[in-house]
Known about the structure:
The structure holds two protein chains of two kinds. Chain A is α+β, with helices and mostly antiparallel strands. Chain A is 29% helix and 23% strand.
Amino acid sequence: MRRIEDGGREDGAYEDGGRLIGRSVPRREDPRLLTGRGRFVDDITLPGTLHAQFVRSTVAHGEVTAIDLDGVRAVPGVVAAYTADDLGLGDITAQLARPVEEFVPTAMPVLARDRVRYVGEPVAIVVARDAYAAEDGVEAARVGYAVHPPVTDEAAALADGAPLLHAEAARNTLVDVRLFATEGIDEVFAAADRVVRVEARTGRQNALPLETRGVLAHWDDREEQLVLHTCSQVPHQVRTVASRCLGLVERAVRVVVPDMGGGFGLKCVVGREELAAAAAALRLRRPVKWIEDRKDALSASFLAREQHYDVRAAFDAAGRILALDADVVCDMGAYSCYPFTAGIEPLMAAAEMPGVYKVPAYRVRGRAVATNKAPTAPYRGVSRPQYVMVVERLFERAARELDLDPVEIRRRNLITDFPYTGVNGITYDPGSYRESLDLCERTLRAEGWYERQRAARAAGRHLGIGYSCFSERTGYGSAAFAQRKMAVVPGFDLSEVRMDPSGAVTVTTGTMSHGQSHETTMAQIVAERLGLELDRVRLHQGDTDRVAYGWGTFASRSIAVGGSAVRLAAGRLGEKLRAIAAARWEVPVEETVLGRGEVVRRGAPGTALDYRELAEVAYLRVDLLPKDIEPGLTATAAFDVFNDGTFSNATHGVVVELHADTGRVEILRYVCVEDCGVAINPQVVEGQCRGGIAQGIAGALFEQVTYDAQGEPSATSFMDYRVPTAHEIPDVAIHHLQTPCAFTETGAKGAGEGGTIGAPAAVLNAVNDALRPTGVELDDIPITPETVHRALHRRHYQESAR
Amino acid sequence: MTNRPQPPAATPDTAAPVDVPPPAERELQLMVLDVNGERHEVITEARRTLVDVLRHELRLTGTHVGCEHGICGACTVLLDDRPVRACLMFAAQAEGARIRTVESLSARPPDAAGSQLSDLQRAFRAHHALQCGFCTPGFLMLAEGFLAERPDADTEEIREVVAANLCRCTGYQPLVEAIEDCAAARRAERAAASAPRKEK
């Protein structure tokens, strides 16, 4: 592990001056995006494009008794309107290979048939000449419902005699797993010096890409293909589901993802509206476009993060954790998402909860319950922002009760010897858990925040300092996903590198950038491997006809897994270039090496063949090639991770001030010490940290998807769903540590989610530190100004309640 | 025929009235819009918003739509040099005004090296003030309008203005820094231009 003293800026050489890995080269994506020349789904229009919108359920739970679309079809500009019966599509069903006691599969129809399960569920599709007429048409629909009592939270879902969303899922429970249960754990709790408990709830959130979901679907007669231009993190998985629902072979579906305005997990599942629009395009044989409006995005899209933890931890007198016993219930809304299922949140929390600490005994129950709310997709971090927050609260509480320093208690428990195999059966590869905590604390101390806190307290102000330590698994290979018992097992990725006759290189990846800068970073990897100028390399992604296969971008997998495949393929192309050069020189291939844009003959200074000359031979002068070398210059590679994956880690340190008059939580300082192994482009890594932290702060302090007692969403605009702005999000100081990963091809670990994972815990701990003189401790997020105001003026509220 | 995919749903729906004429009820209006120094005549419905006309009638798709209720600011354009939300006004209301969109910021299409970018665009790039790029045109036009009016703005004023729009990727700090950098560079340039020339 070593410390990078600066971010390795564009002009500052990071290692040896010439290398591309580790340099913050300017992004390839930027020129088009800065000039309004990006191409997002809604920027694409084909001749004759029609526009779709959806008739959506107005009740949270009920039977559909009648759908009358005659009025819709009479609206000027409306071309067609279809119900589920009209389209006759297959359902979207996500599976886990687990017994029915652990997982109940449920089907999500593309359009609701007889039953609706949340407000906003699509019931019919309206297709019109323009988007305005489509909305006019939607307003003319008449749908009758026999209303059932809604199930609006976890307690109602699990209650005796609760109405069932899915008849097959008793107690509305879609997932129920009990894992690990270390032998003798109850005795450990009984004998422990101290047992602390945290019961915490985390608010439902929307991942909220600024570009809403959307699709432009058309049938291409010449290719005999349904073409879906859509914003998805997982184009090949969209192709699979579209082919199944529509009854096409996969070859007959092409999914093309243009520029994408964020995703954050929400777009790594397969949506219903995209498939309905595709079906309408097939029937009408005209292009059909659907662009989700913000109200639907806030209420009827995929949501995340509503979880309830009841966790106990046993400690010895020195503050060493002895055991962890957790009950996790995740409110997954109405359906399982494809391909991850409703198990995505509880299974993540259950498997990973011990995290960065040496926990000798562990028992966990993880459940997913169905409620009458829009369904859940993975959202940046997936459960880790929540369980990290809960575990960090446990350590803070234990420190308080044992009168230990909150940083010191962490130090005593952090994993320091790697590889470390935890009680959860996971082997953690080397990281800088302890070092990141030390550096983070040192930074805040050196900046004088502890003195300022003492001074502020003396002056009656409420300053608090909080930390969070965590690691996140980022190289999920097929082995790790198979352990989760997914019926389709993601993990590997493919790359093809092709050099054209002019010596320029095209590389494909099965990952799918939607802001993460892959056009830049993947090109850096290839250019570095082959000794090429960066502008000689061009990335292709997000087109199922151009990219053989891929699992897309989620779980911080792109650089760790996709980047490794890209580097392997580039290396294989290099082998081929060397073979051609060796043949030209009539020497063994071992006497050649790759140089800067050329193959160099070992021990023969000045003897080199430029890639252009070699490419010319490979394509235009194949008569010069020996028989054992095939014409053309392409190489492919697959990469998978066959162990438990690689773990990035970080410590976040936060200083907050609570404002007594308004209850506002102001973040005065935010320090992040992160380690994602080799940073391909440090500026991009910093961007991921900052953006992730902003989303974590949003979950800690601001955003919450809310419903009334009838299951009606009550935060359906940006007036009520409070997305933080530059006012609320502080500047973040980032320090890099670097523990290279031993088994990815570049030494990189993933960097996409860490910021989001660490922020809620650190902010909540800082708020609690500020509240310390009041005796109030908060364990739930979001922390509202009202909560803080009540905590700071507890006596006043108690008196006025009398 | 055996090789052709023949799903039931792929059969054209002959019953669908795909060639209905424009309905008589659609009230169309001729509008004359001055966009990026060009005069455009548009015949469209009076209810169409400015952003929809810019994007879908004039095909200037650089301006984006993020919320359609005036909060996120992805649709920000300049109207007589001032930033406005193009989702909150009808196109008809913009007649007679000078409209500027993101497409006007650089004189020529960019090359791969970005050498045609304006100073503001270059500052965004240098500071990694964009990731997915969806909110970017809105922030650029917001900053363009603001810096023209307040060239001496300090960090706090810039942060205040950046807080007018939403970005989900960057955490805002790079946006503030980029705009501040651009403002400082413009000030330095102005100072250099206005400083009396020294005799050698």
